[in-house]
Structure prediction request, 188 residues.
Amino acid sequence: MVFSGLGALMVSVRISSMKNAFLAMTLTALVFVCHAAAAANAPRLIPDNIIGTEPPKSVSEWTRISVLGLRNHLYLIIWISPQSFPRSGFERLVVLSPVEYEGVGPVISAYDCLDPLTPFPEPHAVLVSEYSAAKGEGSCRLPYAASCEFLSKLAKLPGIGGVAKHEKTVRDFAEEFRCPVDAFGSAH
Prediction:
């Protein structure tokens, strides 16, 4: 039997009131060890939503936009690619023509790219990862101050802006990231 929280405390109090202090300490320690072991082996309540589900190997190019930092809920992950592949749950795919997809890279490279592994003072940051079969995968963290501007420009790219479903995907991400609504103009 594994005790947790208040149950572990109650067992400790009851046994502590017994005359045998050694028994009380031993059982209290055992209860907390069992609790810690159960917590370590418990399934995660919130799945990792930074990198999402890896695309099939047949997908030769993609861009992933996700959130780094503290989290109390699942954040949307945006995938952009000239190829279609299955996504579900908190992952959304924006499929662009090859010509439209070529416009994504310059928007990303217009911003300073920070190492995603270095500490950052903000509670959240936008992580942009790009993959191509020829170059492999590279990731960078956008400066917090530039993230909303980046998302606004992304929402206006050909193939995204003007396509309600795609534009909504970027707006939803920006809203979760707490970007000001006026950065995107009027809502559709």
